[in-house]
Amino acid sequence: MGNITTIQAGAREDGGVELAGRCACGKIRYRLGAAPLIVHACHCRDCQRITGGAFVINLWIERKFVAREGPEPRSFRLTGGSGKPHDVFFCGVCGTYLWSFYHGAPGEALFVRAGTLDRPEAVRPDVHIFTRGKLPWVQIPAGARAFETFYKIDEIWSEASKARLKANRTEAA
Fold it and tell me: Which of 47, 83, 85, 153 holds its CA 20 to 30 A away from the CA of 14?
């Protein structure tokens, strides 16, 4: 099954997409050098707590495709619902959460917060995950792929994203 990620940002000459974002104060800016592997709407309690919202929209993308300008983000480590470490990166000036690194996720990848994009409307979730923690008033769109916990990557990701993940795992090894 292929990704249904909607990308409306400007196209690059090589056919890729250009997505960029920043923290609230603008001290840290970033540019994504590729389309995300997949876009999650995560309804887990950890994501609710660290974002202060009902869920978070994360773009799963290889670390090498995230180009940062400005100071190094600060970070802190949580233990995720899986029991594995989860590093959260934020601007040291304004505190905006920019991305996470999940130690349980395969490869060297970041989970970029869609709300920090200059054009957050350029993406939409491919899947809703950890819906067992979904707040009762949140309505998942009809026809959206939703999972009580996580899913099997081989059953959900596009062939192109699976190939990128494989290459990223090899590079990280």
Answer: 153
